[in-house]
Task: inverse folding
């Protein structure tokens, strides 16, 4: 399967929805994580893309398209495993 690259800033190349990205303020500036789409699980980083390395992991944890990892016992991971 081909991994799409973002061509329009902020817009998902797979479903055209608005994408999100996490940011962390490190004091001297803000570091942004990869763009991710909460509609179709596309991620700028193939490792987080729901169609590739992201989504529900073997241990039951959930890796979201923005690179966030939710432990298997977390409500979000349980919700996703239950079918969203
Ligand atoms: Zn999308």
Result:
């Amino acid at each position: 399967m081909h991994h799409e690259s973002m061509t329009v800033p902020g817009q998902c190349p797979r479903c055209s929805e608005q994408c999100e990205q996490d940011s962390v303020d490190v004091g001297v500036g803000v570091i942004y994580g990869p763009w991710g789409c909460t509609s179709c699980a596309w991620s700028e980083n193939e490792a987080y893309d729901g169609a590739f390395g992201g989504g529900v992991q073997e241990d039951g944890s959930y890796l979201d398209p923005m690179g966030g990892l939710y432990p298997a016992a977390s409500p979000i991971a349980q919700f996703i495993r239950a079918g969203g």
Remarks:
- The chain has a mean pLDDT of 96.
- The CA atoms of residues 23 and 32 lie 4 Å apart.
